[in-house]
Amino acid sequence: MEKKSIPAWRLTILGRLDTTLILFELVLSVIFILVAYLTGNIYFRGVGVGLIIAWVTSAIAYLFKKKMVKP
């Protein structure tokens, strides 16, 4: 069987995937916090706080990865 190489455009997308997912978590957390504020629903606030915790954890891991991998 012949191995196919990954196209260049896919490699650039995969290279930015971690940053994209971190920003996506931030945007989603802000949306859920705003919806919770507007509707007064405590469940949306809980989801927003959980996403903020996930965002902070991901950002810290990303910064440590960048610091360790730096050539």
Hey, roughly how much beta strand do the residues contain? under 5%
From the N-terminal CA to the C-terminal CA, the straight-line distance is 36 Å
Q: What overall form do the CA principal axes indicate? A: elongated
Number of H- or I-type helical stretches: 3
* SSE ordering: HHH
Low-confidence stretches: none
Structural class: mainly alpha
Describe the SSE topology.
Elements: H1 8-15, H2 17-39, H3 42-69
Helix pairs in contact: 2-3
How would you portray this structure in words?
The protein has 71 residues and is an all-alpha fold. The chain has a domain at 32-71. Helices cover 83% and strands 0% of the residues. The chain has 3 helices and no strands. The protein has helices at 8-15, 17-39, 42-69. The longest helix has 28 residues, at 42-69. The protein is elongated.
Write a compact overview of the structure shown.
The chain is mostly helical. 83% of the residues lie in helices and 0% in strands. Helix 2 packs antiparallel against helix 3.
Task: For this entry, give a set of tags.
mainly alpha, 71 residues, elongated
